Amino acid sequence: MTSPHPTTSLDGLHALVCGASAGIGRAVALAFARQGAAVTVLARSEDKLLELLPELEASGATASRALIADLDDRPALCDQVSSLLAEAGDIQILVNNAGGPPGGPILEARESDFLSAFGRHVLSAHLLTGLLLPGMKASSYGRILNIVSTSVKEPIPNLGVSNTTRGAMASWAKSVSRELPSGVTINNLLPGFTDTERLSALGRGQAERRGVTMDEVRAGWLAQIPEGRLGRPDELAAMAAFLASPAGSYIRGQSIAVDGGRLRGI
To answer: Which of 21, 42, 126, 183 could in theory staple to 48 by disulfide, Cβ–Cβ 3.0 to 4.6 A?
Structure first.
């Protein structure tokens, strides 16, 4: 499916987007639909996914499906995705995206907190990659995108378990990038402070721990962002759509921040 003139169209491609019921995952699914992909959305929330399907089709998806699944239940996930592949055929685009673990200092985290987060993020991504990779090879086209965090490059205070897990995810992806065949790529997208339900929940937790208001927490975030505002989910989704397309074919094994300039490292 290569072309001498790379396009951003996703026509003829099937994408599986995890965590698609809200926030960044939802925005990514809609961005893929606008580029003409067939889109399967995966999450635990059946109501939200079923509400999303008509929007995907109205946006241009050639087909849309909902897969009600829990990334924490990997045996069931394996069965469900295997059934999806048998029914719908090969999937060329995989978006690994899951809700992050609760905030808090790392020294207060329990062993179970690390194990749960590692399973939800790294092990589920590894499982899904193994299931979808044969179809990507058969199609001579594959894109694996991981929605991670800028904490891959700069750990964020009071997100100890998340920082640890995100770093593991990025290291896993870099290792995978060295073993994938030509035509199949993997990259990490690193959202900064993005206006989602997850960020609001983290902000409320910060405000409670510090004894400050949400407005003060928000002001602290904005002070770190040269662009002067929170990111929008659709802005990260636009980068995901590019990387998923033929135009992104030579970008491989990278961690790309979409953060309004917040990261200080080069």
So the answer is: 21
pLDDT in tens, 48-71: 999 999 999 999 999 999 999 999
The 10s digit of each residue's pLDDT in 14-49 is: 999 999 999 999 999 999 999 999 999 999 999 999
Q: For the residues of 10-79, what is the DSSP string, one character each?
A: -TT-EEEEETTTSHHHHHHHHHHHHTT-EEEEEES-HHHHHHHHHHHHHHT-SEEEEEE--TT-HHHHHH
- Alpha-carbon span 28 to 14, nearest angstrom: 13
* Residues 96/125, Cβ–Cβ less than 8 Å: yes
* Residue 170, SS3 per DSSP: helix
Distance between CA atoms of 79 and 131, rounded to whole angstroms? 10
